Amino acid sequence: MAGVRIVDLGLVAGKILSFWSFIDQQLLCAYMTFNNTPQAESLGLPNTGGLLFRASSGNRGSSMFYDKPATTIDDQVALMSERGMAGDEALMCRWLETVGYYRLSAYWLPFELPASPGQTRTKIFRPGTIFETIVDIYVFDRKLRLLVMEGIERIEIALRSRWTNRLTLAHGAHAHLDVSAFESGYDHISLLSALATRAKDSKEVFVEHYRQKYADPFMPPLWVMTELMTFGELSRWFALTKDLKVKSAVAKDLGLPSREVLEGTLQLLSYIRNICAHHGRLWNRQTVKRLPNIKRFRQDLVVIETTTDQGTQAQPANFIYNALVVLIHMLRRQSADTSFAQRVAALVKTRTAHQLRAMGFPADWENRPCWSV
Predict the structure, then answer these.
(1) Where is 193: in which H helix or E strand?
(2) How confident is the prediction along the chain (373 residues), in pLDDT tens digits per residue?
(3) CA 26 to chain CA centroid, nearest Å
(4) Packing angle between helix 340-348 and helix 131-171, nearest 10 degrees?
(5) CA-based, 20 to 30 A from 55: which of 19, 138, 159, 218?
(6) CB under 8 Å to 340, separation ≥6 — which residues?
(7) Is 149 helix (H, G, I), strand (E, B) or coil?
């Protein structure tokens, strides 16, 4: 691989060890140590049987100790009924046993009476709230997650293929080892180190075949290694790529106007994918990350005025609706006859107008181009 600067693993390891040594010295935010009970009690902490947990000074804003006891399923049903939840108690018991009170509480939160100023929540249900409604929303959310996960999976695989092909044609089969192909600094070293560890420990047939047949370079080619990357890692590798021609071409491959828009979109989709992968609530969630303002999709997106340090800006609303819009456009770029939009539309039509608003759907969503095709 003449002319390509391959990463020196010894240098990588040294830098990583130095980096984590620094972090270890600095991170005093929380630590755990084994100690005897008298020492724990001397700090005013509960008797832990010898295990002492100590928080940092940065966490001393609250002096409360959590002392809520665990409750039985029957107690939970009684508490829900006392707070105004109606419904089949046998159904309540089954769902509380198999799904859990805490998880379900995220779905009945919108049905609680509004909190007073200074109050977090009332925990009292609006009159007429029935448990079957909560179950219905929960099941809908699960179906929505499965659809969104399917769409993101297809985009992830397309990104792997497009980026790998274009980058290796431009920088060689082992482009990921080429320091000059990526932004310098700890980010590339960190990603490469994680990938090297995964390749070393992998039992995948295609990785073991490479190890048995080839000694140099030490790591398989990029088209093998991308199969071991998570979506989040893949999006970070893409962001660190120096070759702007490659990045711009991949953006167009995926139906987006620029590399900057693709980077921002991948951040949002990676965030949503993690919610889906961990079975989190999706339907009425406001996402931490926003979709970039994609002008070519302006007839489909919901854009709102937001206040930032730079003043008032028009930005896409951070609800699942806009993520669905960009998924539809990206999937149509990969397959013009995809049924994704129709299947999402059929599912969301089962929701009330209020629930659609909670997902960011505009009143005229069905007439907007991406849904009416």
Answers:
(1) helix 186-201
(2) 445 555 555 555 555 455 444 444 444 343 333 333 333 343 344 444 434 344 444 555 567 888 889 999 999 999 999 999 999 999 999 999 999 999 999 999 999 999 999 888 999 999 999 999 999 999 999 999 999 999 999 999 999 999 999 999 999 999 999 999 999 778 999 999 999 999 888 899 989 888 888 888 989 999 999 999 999 999 999 999 999 999 999 999 999 999 999 999 999 999 999 999 999 999 999 999 999 999 999 999 999 987 777 778 889 999 999 999 999 999 999 999 999 999 999 999 999 999 999 999 999 999 999 998 7
(3) 28
(4) 160
(5) 19
(6) 147, 150, 151, 327, 328, 331
(7) helix
| CA distance linking residue 72 with residue 76, whole number of Å | 6
Apex 285 CA angle, 99 and 261, nearest 5? 130
Q: Say what the pTM is.
A: 0.81
| Residue partners of 303: CB distance under 8 A and separation at least 6 | 293, 314, 315, 316, 317
DSSP state letter for 87: S
Cα gap 294→261, rounded to integer Å = 7
Q: Which two tokens stand for residue 79?
A: 């508490």
Check: CB of residue 244 under 8 Å from CB of residue 259.
yes
Amino acid identity at 278: H
Cis peptide before 110 (omega within 30 of 0): no
Which residue is associated with the tokens 């966490």? 59
User: Measured at the alpha carbon of residue 49, what is the angle toward residues 43 and 53, in degrees to the nearest 5?
Assistant: 45
The CA distance from 331 to 253, in Å, is 11
In this structure, what token pair is assigned to residue 161?
Answer: 């293929």
Three-state helix/strand/coil letters over 228-247: HCCHHHHHHHHHHECCHHHH
Residue type (1 letter), 120: T
Is the Cα dihedral 174, 175, 177, 180 positive or negative?
positive
